[in-house]
Design brief:
Fumarase C, Chain B, domain 1; Fumarase C, Chain A, domain 2; Ribonucleotide Reductase Protein R1, domain 1; 3 domains; two-stranded parallel sheet; 5% strand; binds arginine
Length: 463
């Protein structure tokens, strides 16, 4: 005869509904956190005199044994357990008999699952933060080696002005820094304890919520029991923060894919991270950045899913909440895997083709602004200089030559203010060096930024 929920029920669940209802297939991930939460709860019950200290110790020991038994394969939750919380409680009762039945005093699965999820996510946030730092360090080392490597800078994906490659890479370090700050902020709201809010209204059992929160390392406790068991804002916020991480990884991926194309040839993919084609023997494909770019979609999808799950739910707990777990688990593993892959890609998956980059920045009109600035420096109003340089560029394009290929006397046809020192101003290195406003790409500015980042990373650059 199948077990029923309580004596209120006469029959067991339909087997298909049992499968449909169960979350054990994925919330098994929360085993350690569920045990930690239960241990904290049992100790607190002991300290508050709700159960005896000896009973609390026995419960704690049995829970620790369940942890060991799971890893040795002796504790095997199954579908009939429904979820991780019931699985642990069932096993505890099997081990301790009536004493095991005391653990659930003064709590509910509603505050329990919220506690577990927050404990789990808090750890994952710290892991992701470490991965973000590792990624920044790899970008930093590349930047440091490439202060004087020039790369075309684009707007509208049209050549705009040349850049120090270090400046380009530092832009990503800045983005990742914002990701770190955002995660750190989300962590504060993950780190609030709902335990002891019970089903929705609190409990008449004389528990001590501060006690469990403190032993689980939470910063504070929820002040409102209804809010405590209904809140998944932290999951949405986390997924939003992860989505921005994925946006940043995806944008860098897109650049690497472009750079690796024959047309750009700004980077060579090493064999470590590139793949071949099953048909075309000449090919080397950038699968890693393509996959990262592609996987961003699932993280954004989970953000939409979580918002949609939450938006119509009346207070307090609704079973819809069970849908949060697979989303969060996938967001975490996708983000972690993508960060790891991108870190490896930037570390050993590509080499910048510095000669090709140097040639590339020589062969365009990305120094046109500098001619205008040259005239501005000689008292010509900017808009006038801009128009004049437009005419020069047009003539060069018609003649199929570059700005620096015009002779001095040809320049003089446009303005008497052009002197021979103009040619030096047109060299890509001078062009880059001249953009020395704060935050600009001038080598001196970029090297200041590198020094600042080096200081921040100084703890361990070798990783
Ligand atoms: N498996 C459930 C979940 O993931 C645990 C909480 C169940 N609570 C309840 N009242 N049915 O949300």
């Amino acid at each position: 005869m199948k077990e029923t929920w309580s004596d209120r029920f006469d029959e067991g669940l339909h087997p298909a509904i049992e499968r449909f209802n169960a979350s054990i297939g994925f919330d098994i991930n929360l085993l350690n956190e569920d045990l930690d939460g239960s241990i904290a709860h049992a100790r607190m019950l002991g300290e508050c005199g709700v159960i005896s200290v000896d009973e609390a110790i026995q419960i704690e020991q049995a829970l620790e044994q369940i942890r060991l038994d799971f890893f040795s394969g002796d504790f095997k939750p199954d579908l009939s357990d429904e979820d991780i919380h019931f699985a642990v409680e069932r096993s505890l009762i099997e081990r301790l008999g009536p004493l095991g039945k005391k653990l659930h005093t003064g709590r509910s699965r509603n505050d329990q699952v919220g506690t577990d999820l927050r404990l789990w996510l808090r750890k994952r946030i710290d892991e992701i933060d470490n991965r973000l730092i590792a990624f920044q360090k790899v970008l930093f080392l590349k930047a440091e080696h490439n202060l004087y490597t020039l790369i075309p800078g684009y707007t509208h994906l049209q050549r705009a002005q040349p850049l120090s490659l270090a400046h380009h890479l530092l832009a990503y370090i800045e983005m990742i820094e914002r990701d770190r700050l955002r995660l750190n902020d989300v962590r504060k709201r993950v780190n609030i304890c709902p335990l002891g809010s019970a089903a929705l209204a609190g409990t008449s059992v004389p528990i001590d919520r501060e006690n469990t929160a403190k032993s689980l390392g939470f910063e504070m406790i929820y002040s409102n029991s209804l809010d405590a068991v209904s809140d998944r804002d932290f999951a949405v916020e986390f997924t939003a923060a992860a989505s921005l991480i994925m946006v940043h990884l995806s944008r860098l991926s897109e650049e690497v894919i472009l750079w690796a194309s024959e047309e750009f040839s700004f980077v060579r993919l090493t064999d470590r991270c590139a793949t071949g084609s099953s048909l075309m023997p000449q090919k080397k494909n950038p699968d890693v950045p393509e996959l990262v770019r592609g996987k961003s979609g699932r993280v954004f999808g989970h953000l939409q899913a979580l918002l949609t799950v939450m938006k119509g739910l009346p207070l307090a707990y609704n079973k819809d909440f069970q849908e949060d777990k697979e989303a969060i688990f996938d967001v975490v593993s996708t983000t972690q895997n993508c960060l790891e892959a991108m870190t490896i890609l930037m570390d050993e998956g590509l080499e910048f083709c510095t000669e090709r980059l140097a040639e590339t920045v020589e062969r365009d009109f990305s120094n046109a602004t500098d001619v205008a600035d040259y005239l501005v420096n000689k008292g010509v109003p900017f808009r006038e200089a801009y128009q004049l340089v437009g005419r020069v560029v047009k003539r060069c394009i018609n003649e199929g030559i570059l700005l620096r290929e015009l002779t001095h006397s040809q320049w003089l046809e446009f303005s008497p203010k052009f002197e021979p020192d103009l040619f030096e101003r047109l060299a890509p290195k001078t062009v880059v060096a001249s953009r020395n406003s704060f935050g600009g790409t001038a080598f001196l500015r970029v090297s200041d930024q590198l020094a600042l980042w080096k200081k921040r990373f100084s703890a361990d650059l070798t990783m």
